[in-house]
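re: that chain from earlier
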Amino acid sequence: NTRYPQKHTDLIQYGVHCVGLDELLSTSDIVTIHLPLTNQTRGIISAEKINLMKESSIFLNTSRAELVDMPPLISRLDKYQNFLVGMDIDVDCYHDLFTVERDNLVVTPHIAGISIDAIKRMDLDLANYLIEMVNQL
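^ sequence. v structure.
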């Protein structure tokens, strides 16, 4: 699912087709979100959207916790043991996730991009971008 399917027409050759968010959530075995936190994306995975997911879905959020309505997500975790969640989020404000030990939840403190390789890659990307900008002057 993407807001801009026209940007991904090259994927059609691989059998990829875009669907609406509701269809994606209700039919997918694995759902992973990769979005910036904006006014448009805050709460995009609402209680209604969470309830569309299969009881045995795997839900991965490597973006920001604020994209997801946490109380309904926690309820679903507690209701369905086969509903698996992995989150790489800022955890300071989400203590409710940790009040109960859950075997179907893995949380890391939004550090996926903090590795030597990732930092080197970001530095290189920034340097290349700056070179491009200077060359355009």
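The beta strands are 30-33, 58-61, 84-88, 105-108.
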